């Protein structure tokens, strides 16, 4: 069974939420709420993946849940290793959903790391609180059996308290590293299965710290998902209704005696209502560019590790609101441009030091609206494009290029299919599949890509797309 677009969209949003939470925790953010956010997101992804038969994603998210649960229950604290393993899992699931890539060996490696992390969190504490209830008249024998179990099995946990009631019932509060069903299997070696139950016991309030988060969740606004195409159709319908109202208003005009036609007043009211409806729908169809930019920090961390470079990210225009469809169209080209900037644009640490630059390469993402278009730019403060390398690469493809070409013409050579100036093939790029892919995707969306570069200063690549829903409303006089 193939996952539908709604599931993929929801899963990607949940992955974005997990990325944001990981970033915030790594920088000292409010940990309890953020961990709960990640847990809910992982649980949602797991359930949807299982429903569509994506067992590798479901299993991976189940293991992530186990790690996050240990953080939620305050048995352990998120550390650099744990955050890294969860982040790698988020990246792996994103690649599976967007590119269909999740190699079995890589998935197995991630699963092993997650299981190891889960085991280490269990060993770092005696485990979860559990309540054992036994109904038996032989209370002393039962108490000795339970106490002996935790004494004889090293690392199982500890017996915290015993509550003996008058009706032959004893309750044992324990902290145990194995789940309830496994503890029950151990107990029935000494007591009758029909007389014993094992259930999870609530953690003390000081440990769970869930109260505030639960209140916030209870008052969170309900949301529904609407397909972007359907929402655009509704906007266009509202625009047509507004136009009809304006036409009726103009046609009815005034009565023969010069008074205002009552039907004209009603038509005016319809016109205004439809305009407000169209504008309201338009607002629903827009989203901030920050949703797109939020995908970049995890990518930079991954590339920093793989390329052995440092990056500093700067953002401008995150609050710009654009049509969700337009925003989605930017996603793949933007990720490709960032990868290019990190791999080709930013120099290695030694070269930056020799050039008198900071060790961390500066990556700047910016967005702005102007004249019915949205412009999203990726700038790096690297070495800039090399005229000579581009000309040589073009000639190797038998392109008739001359040295007298101006800079802009030379930069446009980067869009040539198969052209690459990379000295070596890396895991990130260097196979001649690059800027031509970006240009093809942007052109298919009705947009343009431009490059501006200065030697030693850096490179800026700008994508321009029509802000379609804004444009359509403006064309009909709705502002």
Describe this structure in words.
With 479 residues, the protein is of the alpha+beta class. It is 54% helix and 16% strand. The protein has 19 helices and eleven strands. A five-stranded mixed sheet has the order 6-8-9-11-10. Strand 10 and strand 11 form a beta hairpin. It is flat, with a radius of gyration of 30 Å. It starts with a helix and ends with a helix.
Shape, principal axes of CA atoms: flat
Number of strands: 11
Radius of gyration: 30 Å
Query: Which residue ranges are poorly predicted, with pLDDT under 50 across at least 5 consecutive positions?
Result: 121-126, 205-223, 469-479
Biggest pleated-sheet summary: 5 strands, mixed
**Lateral strand order in the biggest sheet:** 6-8-9-11-10
Question: Structural class of the helices, strands and pairings?
Answer: alpha+beta
The DSSP helix count reads 19
CA distance, first residue to last residue: 44 Å
Which sequence of SSEs, written as H and E, runs from N to C?
HHHHHEHEEHEHHHHEHHEEHHEEHHHEEH
Q: Bin the helical content.
A: 40-55%
* Mean pLDDT, all residues: 76
Assess the beta-strand content as a share of residues. Answer: 15-25%
